[in-house]
Structure formats: C-alpha cells, structure tokens
Amino acid sequence: MRLIENRYLGFNPFRFDFKTKTDEQQWEKFHAHQGLEFLYIYQGYGSMIIDQKIFQIKPKTLICFQPFQLHKINISINQQCPYIRTMLLFSPESVDQFLKPFSSLYSLFKYLYKGKLQQPLFDISNNHKIPELLFEFNQRSKIVKLNNMREEFILFLISFLQGLRDVIPQNSEKISSPNRYLRHIEKALDWIEAHYKEEFILDQLASDLHLSSYHISHLFREEMNCTISEFITVRRIKEACLLLSSTDLSIQTIGKLVGLKSDSYFSYLFKKNIGMTPKQYRTSLKDFFMNVDSDSSGNIHSSVKLT
C-alpha cells in the first residue's frame, strides 16, 4: 500500500476541495502528501494520530499536515452528523517567492512548512475569519478566469496566513525554532527545486545528500513512484507551462530557462507530457480565454486545480 499520495506531482501547484461531504459509517485514512495541507472540519468527530500522538477531532478544527507527514484520521459518522471538511493542498515551492516580501507572514509560512510544530491541530471556534476566507475563495474560484487563478490563490493564501496569525501562538521562539528533521526524500526534493534549471547530474545530488547514487535513485522511485529524471522533467514542464501562460517570452527562451537547451527536445518532452507542442499550448490558452470572455459558463468551479 502506498502511503505517499502523488496528488499533485503533475502540473497542479494547488488543490482546493470545498465542503466535501462523506456519509459512510466510518471514514479512515492513513497516508501522507507531498505538499502542505490544511484541513478544516465543519462537521464530524473522531481522532487523529500524527507523530505517535493522538488528537481529538471536532467541528471548527483546523489541522495542518506538513509535507510527507504520515497521519491517520478516523471519523465516526452517522446520518445526523456526516463528515464535512474543506481541504487545501499546495506545493510550498510554488508560493515561496510570492511570500518573501511579507517578512512576518513568510516566517509563519516557513514555520508551518518546515518548523517543529508544537501541535498540528487548532481550535478556531472563536475565529470566524478562516471559514469565511475558505467560503470567499470558493465563490471567487467560480468567477475568476483561469489565467488569473494563480494570482487569486496567492492573494487568498496571504489572507489565509494573516488569519492564522490569530490562531497560532505568535511566540518568536516558536516561529524561529529549529526545522524538523527532513527525510532523505524531502532533502532530494529541496535539492531538485534549487537545481532543476541546471543540467542534472545524479552523482552531484547523491554527493550533496551524502548518499550513494543507487540509494537515492532507489529511494526516490520507491517513495515518488517515478525516477528522478522523470520528476525533474515534470518540474521543468510545469515551469514552462507557467511561463507560456504568463509571459511573452519566446518558446526557445522558455526552454532554455527551464533547463532544456535543445529546442527540439523541449518540444518533444512538452508534447509527451502535455499532449501538444508549446506553441499549440500557448494558442489553446488564448482560444480558451476568448471563449470564456464570450461564454460565462467557462468558469472554474468547486474543486479547483490549477494548471
């Protein structure tokens, strides 16, 4: 059984599922995610095990799951009390640069991302801002055009972190506490994020992580269900998609910026992963936006994934 869910290994930097409802008699999950996850409970009672500690779950609870943090959730459900929650899952790397200008929010973000959390569960029964922000973001996601969705998400995340400042004890010692221990796979992902635009050399990654090339390759495939090269390709193509949709840079320039110096190889990998060439992708986005302008039914709805 795979415990690490590859929910957004592809091209979606965030996922937002608003007020998902479960009526089953018993709901249980034991897994981890690659991203930073926030789970807000509207209805449902149960328990959660994380880092060998048991926490009680109840309505108006907000839970923070750090990347690759194994957790088990068990919810007891009946007809009078279904399990209703909103889930926000996103790639920390995709928002890091946008949060850096806000020093206090950035410190909080890094603490939630890599810090040693005093506890992952917060009672927000006296805080109405968080559920209101989730509701407003869901409403906005229905009317915002696809090319503005990334900006909308960043603005929402800034407001969300501001709301969390009222929930999480703002003790400077806690916020600046040492980072939690990072597993080898997390260190590998951090290394890739810093070097994916460069030529990939497996021996360099292994050396920097003080592991053998065989060990890190085997570990990566075991945990991520893909090779390191495949993952780097996905990361490069995801960045290329962003640049194609948000800039007027030439396709050749974008290929080089994401670490693919050969124009033909860039087009080959892009088509292999996306199903169309970079030029076709850029054209399809322009056509999509024109259709949205003339047809309001082209808006995004409740479960939001951003390409």
UniProtKB/TrEMBL annotation:
Domain HTH araC/xylS-type: 186-284
A Pfam family it matches: AraC_binding
Gene Ontology molecular function terms on file: DNA-binding transcription factor activity; sequence-specific DNA binding
SUPFAM superfamilies the record matches: Homeodomain-like, Regulatory protein AraC
Keywords: DNA-binding, Transcription, Transcription regulation
Descriptive protein name: AraC-type DNA-binding protein
Source lineage: Bacteria, Bacillati, Bacillota, Negativicutes, Selenomonadales
